[in-house]
Write a structure and sequence with these properties.
single chain; 443 residues; alpha+beta; Serine Threonine Protein Phosphatase 5, Tetratricopeptide repeat; Porin; 14-stranded antiparallel β-barrel; two-stranded antiparallel sheet; 8 helices; 16 strands; 26% helix
Length: 443
């Protein structure tokens, strides 16, 4: 007998025992169990039917027998994941579905179930990632609308936390000048070494948290923070904002309005404080597009040594995401800004743009690449230099996340980037390269 034939015979025998075990005992000496002739596929179909009918105990027994015959069968593993979902063992369901996607990231149904399991486990950032990317698959219209409904809930009515921390070398953490000399009033001066770029190893951390409450979880408190720490504090930076807001749903659109205080520190000293008012809007466009837009106003009051920078900022931006297929997506963004400082030479108009690409590889890794740039045009000639300042920045970033190696919701990641700012005033021209290893909750 060939090995596969023996496995099939094993399934028949085991299922016969199963049917007998589930039969009611009416006599001290029951009749021999009836003969059952099912192959693995038919037995899996029976388990799927029982799951759909809510007969979880029977489904669990038959899946246990099937695992003994073919433990690595994708269909059996998928049904195990479905059983874990129905018994609220979300961690097990996530583990099984992620394992299946590691083998084949193109499995649209598996990704849908993984996103749902993550949502039920309240890992909303990871759920959002998979719901957005699964839109690139061939989905029935009802399933696609369900995905949009989940995304609306995540965007507007969920409590969540996203955290990333990276440590590594940075060629220019203070964004210091790449020039050795500077020309002022027709004379050339040599820059002090402290004013030029220098390498260092530091820690950078980002966190975003959101807590919802009230009727239908429409109210929320949101907080965001960024911290950079380097030896000697010469490039240390901290930023914190906290807002109170409310979300609104109109048809397929989600609107939010929020306001609250913000503040920043630089080199262990207060830099500025102020306030934030922001409105956002998100909605699907067609089958695979998601549009997100925002408008914000900030008031920044700098400490006395930088008082001339105090003023108002206004920003308008939009991002369009497109799911290419069930394993990849692309997005583009454009932002317009106006900074009105207390003194005209430090006021500027800004335009920023970026393009990003995300790809889920079958070898347990997610890759994200982002290319962006900006142009800042200042209102008046700069003091000392007598020149109009225009800055042009280009930046490239890449992230590699090991999605299947998560621990308590955190996954290891590698981050690398390079940026170049060219200014009409050489003092503000700089280069920066960095690489780091860390952890993240968004994958």
């Amino acid at each position: 007998m060939r090995p596969r034939a023996r496995e099939g015979a094993g399934v028949v025998a085991l299922l016969a025992v199963l049917v007998f075990a589930m039969s009611p005992i009416g006599h001290a000496q029951p009749e021999p169990p009836p003969s059952v002739d099912l192959n693995v596929e038919e037995a899996a179909g029976l388990a799927a039917r029982w799951l759909a009918e809510g007969k979880l105990e029977q489904a669990e027994k038959i899946l246990g027998l099937l695992r003994r015959v073919d433990a690595e069968n994708p269909q059996i593993l998928f049904l195990q994941g479905e059983l874990a979902l129905q018994t609220q063992d979300y961690a097990q369901a996530v583990r099984i579905f992620r394992g299946l996607l590691t083998r084949n990231p193109m499995l649209t149904r598996v990704r849908l179930e993984l996103a749902r399991a993550l949502f039920l486990a309240r890992d909303f950032d990871a759920a959002r990632y998979h719901f957005e990317i699964v839109l690139g698959g061939e989905l029935p219209e009802e399933a696609r609308q369900n995905v949009f409904a989940y995304l609306r809930a995540i965007y507007a009515r969920t409590t969540r936390l996203n955290f990333t921390a990276v440590i590594g070398p940075d060629s220019n953490p203070a964004y210091a000048s790449a020039s050795r000399t500077v020309e002022i009033g027709g004379n050339t001066y040599l820059l002090n070494s402290d004013a030029r770029a220098k390498k260092s190893i530091g820690l950078t951390a980002f966190a975003q948290g959101r807590y919802v409450f009230g009727d239908e979880n429409r109210n929320f408190v949101r907080a965001g923070a960024e911290v950079r720490q380097f030896p000697g504090s010469y490039a240390d930076f901290g930023y914190l904002e906290a807002t109170l807001g409310r979300s609104f749903v109109t048809g397929e659109s989600i609107w939010t309005a929020e306001a609250g205080p913000l503040g920043s520190r630089y080199q262990d000293r207060a830099l500025y404080r102020g306030g934030l008012l922001q409105f956002t809007h998100a909605r699907p466009l067609g089958e695979r597009f998601i549009s997100q837009a925002f408008a914000s106003w900030r008031r920044l009051d700098y400490e006395q040594r930088y008082e001339y920078l105090s003023g108002n900022q206004g920003w308008l931006g939009t991002t369009l995401r497109y799911a290419i297929d069930p394993t990849s997506g692309v997005w583009g963004s454009v932002t317009l800004g106006r900074n009105s400082a207390g003194e005209r030479p430090y006021s500027y108009d800004a335009i920023e743009g970026a393009i990003g690409y995300v790809k889920e590889l079958p070898s347990r890794f997610n890759v994200q690449v982002r290319v962006g740039g900006s142009r800042l045009s200042y209102d008046a000639k700069q003091p000392l230099f007598g020149l109009e300042r225009v800055d042009r920045l280009v930046r490239v970033d890449m992230e590699l996340t090991a999605r299947n190696w998560s621990f308590y919701g955190f996954a290891p990641m590698l981050l690398a980037g390079a940026s170049r700012n060219d200014s009409s005033i050489s003092l503000y021209t700089y280069r920066r390269n960095f690489i780091g290893a860390g952890i993240t909750r968004e994958f």
